[in-house]
Amino acid sequence: MTSEVIVDVQQKDISIALLEDKRLVEFQQEGRAEHFSVGNIYFAKVRKLMPGLNACFVNVGYERDAFLHYLDLGVNFNAMAKFLDLNADGKRNAPIHKALGQPILEKEGSIQNTLKVGQEILVQIVKEPISTKGPRLTCELSFAGRFLVLVPFGDKVSVSSKIKSGAERARLKQLIQSIKPKGFGVIIRTVAEGKRVAELDMELKILLGRWDAAIKKIQKAKQSQQKLPFLCYEETSRAVALLRDLFNPSYENIYVNDKNVFNEINDYVGLIAPDRKHIVKLYNGNVPIFDNFSVTKQIKSSFGRTVTYKHGAYMIIEHTEALHVVDINSGNRSKSTDGQEANALDVNLGAADELARQLRLRDMGGIIVVDFIDMALAESRQKLYERMVENMRNDRALHNILPLSKFGLMQITRQRVRPAMDVTVEETCPTCGGSGKIKSSLLFTDTLESKISFLVNNLNIKKFRLHVHPFVAAYINQGIVSLKRKWQIKYGLGIKVIPNQKLSYLQYIFYDQHGEEIDMKENNEMKLLYVGNKIEAKIPLAPI
Hints:
The chain is an alpha+beta fold. The protein has 12 helices and 27 strands.
């Protein structure tokens, strides 16, 4: 099985696609300006106590206050509170081990006896805002690396249960005990198996450096009396943070279309797997990177309410506030002559294969209820259950699968830390805006030419790329003396026409030579913001 990672970096967001045998199995997309990411640490104040829930609400800058339960304070909360008191004036730099020796937090305690309104605490986001709920917080801080997880205010060294060798577990535990400083706990991850002390020591120093940087930010904030809350530790760059959880040394290629992000990922891979640094490659093609690797088409066909799979069968996926519901339908597969039981089993097994992919692709978490086609034989139901369990083995998220109920329903729980990925595959006509009426499509190329003429003659922009739908691009490029060639002869050779599968049929986007979008809206007024030449103009145009 070949595995490749495709990273698409845009101005507003970063998308990462994982392909297995050229088939899309995971897709993640995050805004570059997003501030509420799992792993971020905030220095914040308690806003409200909720004794009935044994919890409190904390202001971390989100429109809805974040939720912090008493049990999420952690057993070492008193040590953290002591540490913050020792460094309260922002001038002292008391080491973490000075705060040790505090009594552990009792499990049966209450929030009102532990915290007070206005108290300053360190919190970390463990679950992003979902629907109407704010972020979920914890006071058990952790700094995740590739091989290790650093836990301040602890002293325990834990080894991943997936490392089965007793000798290796003992080696790793003894090694980390000898190099870790006092006042820090460490969790040894599965990928640390067989690693040398130099590699683990280097990562431990990096994680300790992140902790020190976070504390320095807090001290500076106290000295300058900065308003709370504020972000004192942010996960590494979006691309690296997304890739860290996905990365596997078995990947054959990692393609990136942005030079800066390429350097970040290259440095990261060089740090955790120096012998695999060559797999990171910079993509410089004119065609959008997702189009080049057939990712865009797979996204369009894999998301949406209805998903088809082999032999005409399909599934309907509905997302509700409480759970996700999946209905399996045989479609025209029901015309098969193999018999009802064999037909139902075949459709259900195909649905199990596709559903396991959809759960990873959409990152569906919480409760998933699947309504499979009814099967009379117990061995058929058992076979379906085993197939589903086998398909979910490669899923990194924690999950639990129950056998089919007597109603033919399968219940699945899957770890949820962020909202389910929802990609809109329906397209609104960019020309009519959904009204249902457009100008004659035969005049579309004339519209494009008028925009090109305005850019070249009025704004003196000689080099730019025009992104259009692949069908339109094929029409513009057809023939020996194509329409594109005529434009180049008339307006200059700086015109490039690029097919883009993300665009709808009559949609177009202009980009300058620096990759900045030139806003050329189809209305009586054009607003142009050209950053590269620092031109800012609002110029009325006659209707086209």
